[in-house]
Amino acid sequence: MTTVLILLFGSAIVGLVIGPRYNVYMLACSAPVLALVAATVARLSDFGLLSGILITFACLTVSQIAYLFVTWLSMTHEERLAHHQSDDQIGEDGQYHIPDEQTDQKNPPPVTRWGNSRDAR
Fold it and tell me: What CA dihedral angle connects 7, 8, 12 and 15, to 10 degrees?
């Protein structure tokens, strides 16, 4: 029984590791390796044929469920970030209105005849 729990835990770890970094093709590539390991360990632990098949199926299922769970969590987190209100102020014209030094001052520098401030010479 401990062997089955270790196999299931290992399968869940494989699904959790593959989920955030790789796409579903990596999960499909890891499934035969995981099935081979589960079947080998089940056979070496003196489980019967039907028990070995069920253990292998359970390991693959747990791995895929863990993958889907992590993928769902990352998509939910991205969705929340997409709806998060930005701290930047965007005007109606679509331009950012970030205050600079002149708008922070109470009295802006006077404009000369050429449109430049006296300090810009």
Answer: 70
